[in-house]
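To: structure subgroup
Subject: Chain for Friday's discussion

All,

I'm putting the inputs and outputs inline so they're searchable in the archive.
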Amino acid sequence: MGTLYLVRHGQASFGAEDYDNLSELGHKQSVRLGEYFAHKGIHFDGLIAGTLRRHKQTLAGILEGMNHEGEHLSWDGLNEYDSEAVIATVHPHKLEKPTSPEMYRAHFRLLRDGLAQWMAGVVTPHGMPSYADFVSGVSSALDHVRANHFGKNVLMVTSGGPISTAVGYILGTSPETTIELNLRIRNTSITEFAFTPKRHMLVGYNAIPHLEDPQYASWVTYS
């Protein structure tokens, strides 16, 4: 039996011109997670990450917290979908930067609608693969882990979309459930799979044990 730890990236820069960059808090979250892994004596025999900047920065922070160095395998199938392109399929006009709770709620309502239509094959957001191809990119990473890391611990750093897709793929959830899983994933949360050469099994989802102490209450974020 092996263990795969899927980690969502640290807090990025939602609403900024360049989202794909960790905030100062996002870096702290990543280092803190690495400290937690080190404290628990968890070591990784394999390191895999998406190719986005926030994925690589999060992995670097985790390794910093673990006081560990290591080469990782880059996997573009673990990259996040383009939320702006998804929203544009149902709302062709440019959205204003959200500045209030109401605007944030409107943003996520549109995102839910766009995701549902993309997953159903009704729309193909500009510059994005079909949903079937997106799922294939995620499942191919899971296949790689099973084929090459049996009996080992593997760390995979990615985004909320691929993590929820992986969970949905393993459990056979409906698109609606996969969307809800996606929109509730916390930054640097851990989703844990046990795996054999034949299959993955969900052990835990969206856990933040490294942030459970009250001193880290303000470090729990979703963006």
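Points worth raising on Friday:
The beta strands are 2-8, 46-49, 73-74, 153-158, 190-195, 200-207.
The chain has a mean pLDDT of 94.

D.
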